[in-house]
Design goal:
By secondary structure, the chain is α+β, with helices and mostly antiparallel strands. Helix content is 49%, strand content 11%.
Length: 378
């Protein structure tokens, strides 16, 4: 299998950023980490699929090569435990483990039990979304037929035999059973074919135009006012911090306070000694998405509304701009990732209300109304 360095560059950048996140050098928020993880998985799905002769492995990995880590295994939850139902499809804890196993060696042992539970809930949400997409594609005639699934499984069995394995050994070594394998085949095949049709040059150019500075290499010099809640575990402290940030924002816009005075009086960041200047920011994965998007949307002299991250609440001011020169062709892989993510989100949001989606509570999950984790051990 030959993969060109240029094709791997976005993946390497994503993995590097994910490593910094998980080692707590950038942003320890597990939601942001899993967003990057999903970004990497989308790259693998789109760019490596054309090199693999089936929707599954052509050379089954050995047991020592498995990505699933002991830190993800909850001995109280059997692999076959049903964790969710999407339409008539039942999802199991085995699939949650396998979804998290795609994290390709990130330093997951550094996460707390709470962070692991959050990532499990996010993995389950992703799996439910994948099944929703499969149901949607089937409803528009873009799904995989039973005959096609049977053919894929038969071809996989033959490839497994060529490396001296039985099909049962392959399933066991990869923590699979036949139903979860078939669900994975349906997802990978139908999603890949759908993306092949949708990610045309015209559509990629439209995405590039809509994203502007997020992809063209633009850098902005940013100053900030950083406020931190007294207790980041209390929602009311976050609310009061956000209210205070809005008051500061309003006073600067009303010219009853200057930016410099507001920084001096309110910011808790070391950059307050330099009018809040934190240097150049670009879309390179070193800052949370909400921070980067708000920063790159500013014009020189403009101040953002309050931005919430895991660190605190930020007010951003654009000090200078260096416009990027990249063309859409130069960021084609990133465009594919972004377009795939947008398509996935759009399908799930539109089609989810039409399906019965229920979580059993056997594994942590996000409450649909509050977005809080249900089943998190205290």
């Amino acid at each position: 299998m030959v993969i060109f360095v240029e094709q791997l560059r976005p993946l390497v950048r994503c993995i590097s950023t994910l490593g910094r996140i998980m080692s707590h050098r950038v942003n320890p928020d597990p939601r942001f980490a899993f967003a990057m993880f999903s970004f990497v998985c989308q790259f693998i799905s789109i760019n490596l699929a054309c090199f693999i002769p089936s929707t599954t492995w052509s050379n089954p990995p050995q047991p020592d090569d498995r990505f699933i880590r002991d830190s993800w295994i909850d001995p109280k939850i059997p692999d076959d435990a049903v964790v969710a139902q999407v339409g008539v499809t039942l999802l199991t804890y085995r699939e949650v483990r396998n979804q998290l196993g795609l994290s390709i060696g990130a330093k997951l042992e550094r996460l707390s039990d709470e962070q692991v539970a959050r990532l499990q809930a996010q993995a389950l949400e992703q799996l439910a979304g994948q099944q929703i997409v499969v149901e949607y594609l089937s409803s528009i005639g873009r799904g995989l037929s039973s005959e096609q699934v049977d053919l894929e499984v038969t071809q996989l069995k033959r490839r497994v035999e060529t490396v001296g394995k039985t099909f049962e050994q392959f399933l066991a070594e990869n923590n699979l059973d036949l139903p979860s394998l078939i669900r994975n085949i349906r997802w990978q095949h139908s999603w890949r074919e759908f993306l092949n049709d949708q990610l045309t040059d015209d559509n990629l150019q439209k995405v590039f135009k809509s994203q502007g500075r997020m992809l063209d290499g633009t850098r902005v010099r940013i100053a900030q006012i950083l406020l931190r809640p007294d207790n980041r575990d209390l929602a009311e402290d976050w609310d009061s911090t956000l209210q205070r940030a809005n008051e500061i924002y309003a006073s600067i816009n009303a010219e009853t306070s200057t930016w410099e005075a507001a920084v001096e009086q309110n910011s808790v960041a070391p950059s307050k000694q330099n009018s809040g200047d934190i240097g150049w920011i670009e879309n390179d994965g070193t800052m949370p998405d909400t921070f980067t998007e708000a920063a790159l949307a500013l014009q020189v002299g403009e101040i953002s509304q309050p931005i919430k991250t895991s660190i605190g609440v930020h007010l951003l001011k654009c000090v200078d701009i260096e416009l990027g020169q990249r063309t859409w062709r130069e960021v084609r892989d990133e465009l594919k990732l972004l377009a795939a993510k947008e398509l996935f989100t759009w399908i799930v949001s539109r089609h989810r209300p039409k399906l019965q989606v229920e979580f059993t509570g056997a594994c942590p999950y996000f409450d649909a109304e509050t977005n809080e984790i249900v089943g998190l051990s205290k």
